[in-house]
Amino acid sequence: MTDGFAFRRRRVGSDRFAWLTEPRITPARPAVSWPCAGQCCERPDRCSTVPNASLSALALAAIVLAKPLAGQGWDPNLAGDRYRNPIIFADYSEPDVVRVGNDFYLTSSSFGDVPGLPILHSRDLVNWTIIGHALPKLYAAAFDTPQHGNGVWAPSLRLHNGQFYIYWGDPDRGIYVVRARDPRGPWDTPLLVKEAKGWIDPAPLWDDDGNAYLVHAFANSRAGIKSELHVAQLNADGTRVIGDDKLVFDGHAHYPTIEGPKFYKRNGGYYIFAPAGGVPTGWQTVLRSRTVYGPYEDRVVLAQGSTSINGPHQGAWVATALGEDWFVHFQDRGAYGRIVHLEPMTWANDWPVIGVNPNSDGVGEPVTEHARPRIGNAKGAMHACRKPRTNSIGPSVCSGSGKRIRLRRGIRCRSGLDGCAYVRSRSHKAP
Fold first, then answer.
1. Is the predicted pLDDT of residue 59 greater than 50, yes or no?
2. Mean pLDDT score across all residues of the chain
3. At residue 160, does pLDDT exceed 50?
4. Measured on CA atoms in the order 301, 304, 309, 312, is the torsion positive or negative?
5. How much is the pTM?
6. Contact of 322 with 374, CB cutoff 8 Å
7. 360's torsion region: left (phi>0), alpha (psi -120 to 50) or beta?
């Protein structure tokens, strides 16, 4: 539901911001609580979805004059087990997504808004519910005065050792993190991971050997640097940067304004997903290397192409429990904000192909509609969120990263991107 209007700052570039007016969405309250005590978590029942509508004041006024608002709103669901983009027709800038079992959680930039760092939940990657915020208040007295787009930029959401982590960059203060056992909260007080002016868009990676790393970009207006990605080492629990960061990719020649990186590991290779080319007209780049600090190969994997979806980039790779890969990203729509799209994703020669690939050149184009993700059924499955011990996730559950192995009779196991193990009996088949 909506209950009036809220003014919200929207990032339109690394260093440029604009104001927009949008309906204020009231979060739906879940019917049941979902405690996440210890290391293993029970899933909640299905929740109702967020009304997918976000309109500027002028656009809303035009619709009011044309027809009643009753029953109006964007619905991403189509007949025939299909969906359409955007999946969220509202301003959720620079989204990141993580999966835990069959549950998906999303957060996005909130700049100087209070509460900040919205947390959304989905069971199908298409329909989303607001379940809370990780920042009930901001972390500096300076925010008592409006900051016009300062504050929380481009967060990364991860699960590690049974805890949810959200990292973000404050261009004037440095890199912060908050943690929680339950994504609904409570969330810990923000910790300053690295005090640094101009560091933005952080994303962590916990490696198989126990080392942790952080990739980040720069805001030119504060650091005097842009179009570069650096990697720094973190301490084991991800709360402090150790030593100096190192340049791993320079995009000045072919990838101007490369920023917003996300860090992943697949089949022993390191991948950095990063947008370039500017917000309204840019593209999605992927870098890959056999070592953390490079050298990195580069490829454009998603661009507007012949579609009407401008600047399709900056978001999250997420895999379903059945092994399907998807990419969640934003599109800048001016006064409508940065709306959220969902793209299918496949792999060819260890490079991701996002969206559809009409020219068979590896550069995908965004879809306007597509078959819905195949999520699977939690019945008959055992979901564990357990602390890894030397490349294993829980006793006799999973070993290695992203590999499917055979354990005892009748059991298969696959370790996921989120660091959890998913075990399913062969006697139960997912739909």
1. no
2. 79
3. yes
4. positive
5. 0.75
6. yes
7. left
Q: How far apart are CA 17 and CA 11, in angstroms?
A: 4
The predicted pLDDT at position 422 comes to: 36
How far is residue 339 CA from its own chain's centroid? 13
User: Residue with structure tokens 């912060």?
Assistant: 176
Percent of the chain at pLDDT above 70? 71
Residues sharing a CB contact under 8 Å with residue 275, sequence separation 6 or more, in sequence order: 258, 259, 260, 282, 283, 284, 285, 313, 314
Chain center to CA of 23 = 23
First to last CA, the chain: 33
- pLDDT tens by residue, 365-381: 999 999 999 997 644 33
Phi and psi angles of residue 62, each rounded to the nearest 5 degrees, phi first: -65, -40
With pLDDT > 90 as the criterion, what percentage of the chain qualifies?
A: 69
Decide: residue 416, CB within 10 A, 0-12 exposed, 13-18 middle, 19+ buried: buried
User: Cis omega (within 30 of 0) on the bond before 183?
Assistant: no
Instruction: Please count the other Cβ atoms lying within 10 Å of the Cβ belonging to residue 148.
Output: 12
Question: Which amino acid is it at 102?
Answer: N
Compute, in degrees rounded to 10, the torsion defined by CA atoms 219, 225, 229, 233.
-90
Sequence letter at residue 135: L
Q: How far is 383 from 61, CA to CA, in rounded Å? A: 48
Compute CA 422 distance to the chain's CA centroid, rounded to the nearest angstrom.
21
The single-letter code of the amino acid at 305 is G
Average pLDDT of 85-90? 98
CA 162 from chain centre, in angstroms, equals: 18
Taking CA 259 as the corner, what is the angle to CA 369 and CA 305, rounded to the nearest 5 degrees? 35
User: Do the Cβ atoms of 10 and 336 come closer than 8 Å?
Assistant: no
Rounded to 5°, angle at Cα 324 from 420 and 287: 85
